[in-house]
Task: structure prediction
Amino acid sequence: MPDLPVTSQPDVVFGRGGGRDLLCDVYRPSGDGARRPAAILFHGGGWRRGSRASLRDRALALASHGVVVIAPEYRLTDESRWPGHIHDAKAALRWVCANAGDLGVHPDQIALVGFSAGAQLALLSAGTPGHAAFSGEGGHPETSEVVNAVVGFFSPIRFVSGNERSNDGVPASAGESLGDDLSDDELREASPITHAGPAFPPTLLMHGTADEVIAYRSSVAMFEALHAAGVPVDLRLYQGLRHEFVRMDGVMQVCMADVALFMQRTMVDPARFDVPQDVLFGRPATPEGAAR
Result:
């Protein structure tokens, strides 16, 4: 069970966007001063509402597992049209990488975690390191945008034109989406599944089968695309749970523990989980060539 005390530092400037400072909240677990893995959390809200403050409980829960958690803001659609949102997300990522030492973060153990609209930003950031159209000018332009793992909760993974939803597509003209003035090429580039390929980092996808906002088949489609590309990818489907199920007390704690475990398995200490079956089941190994 998580038990590390956590301290929080609000309103830390991480970059610039739209002529103003962009802020984040930093959550640090107590410890011995050794560098820790980090997770950058992006809130949901359909790109037009929501705030980093909504992530406080999730950030505290994840940080209690020994993870430095950064919850950044990003400009919403009433302040900046697409791609301003992804510009800010990338600025937050570069800031964490550039300040890993001061944050007490291991530079090769940085994960992105997003919820709904924030999951689109997390997955798209993870799949497009160095993509000039998405990098923006928020700060630290020479810093790497490569991440080591990514987690998407109830993720939109494909945008389509018009107003009709498909099994895995969200219409960009829907009231909660990016906007109705994007071209087909822009929609395709903004879709995380477009960038699924062998270079994608290890990925964890979580979705409820009763999600009425983003169909769970979105996460299934992303899982299948990444699996076909040879990317380590896990999929969790929660029977009967709806959109934003992670807000539920009890469920939230289990999900954050799963995220922490995923980070351990994929980027912190993967060798610890590469256990031979004989050891796992408590049986002595069979000597090579011996009768079975």
Remarks:
- The mean pLDDT is 92.
